[in-house]
Fold this protein.
Amino acid sequence: MNVSAGLKIQQAISFAVAGLAASSMPAPLERDAVRDEALRKVAAVAGERGWRMATLRDVAGPEADLLFPGGPVEMVESWSDLCDRDMLSAMLSCEEERLSQRVKQALLLRLPVERAMRTGARSGFGVLAAPCAGGALRRSMLRTVNAIWQAAQDESSGVTYVTKRLTLGSIYGATLLFWLARGQNEADMARFIEHRLAGVRQIGKLKTRLLGVFMRPKPGSVHAVTPAEPA
């Protein structure tokens, strides 16, 4: 991935993350076994041959392009959704009790170190980040962030639901860029994710301390605790 392409993808991911808080979940994509099988075949070679309709026809049959009338953008967006579903299935066996560690495991499963997966994703993000993609990158990011929280068994709602997804969007965006550039080693990936999660925990602790300082009643205020007068 050259520098120019990397910067475009980084900018597109930043815009997608920034839109997480205000965006509702996009409509579900069409799903069936035939489409999934075709996507897996294309993904295996997309790093070298690209997400093109000609590639789809070559690996999945001469009429396989009829499965994706939206062309390469629909293909890549559907593949991202398939990867989300694979991650959710793999997380069913996760027995980790800590939420942060469940999030970490989900991220590692969603961004595996296999070369074909990484090169296919690198090519695919070029498709999703194109001006003609019609917001496909944002939709894919929304689905993935939501799927990771589902996989981590988080049951938050309301404002917490939104803020958690916004925070995870930033973590996922940073981890995604690291994975695309240098994600060939799972131990390195795990350390990077741990570092990002630790940063969020530190910010959370700082916010709690600051909130405690600002909410603490001042001496002499009506909310201050004073000794009881003798009867």
About this structure: The two ends are 79 Å apart (CA to CA). The mean pLDDT is 85. The first helix runs from residue 3 to 18. Residues 145 and 168 are 7 Å apart (CA to CA).
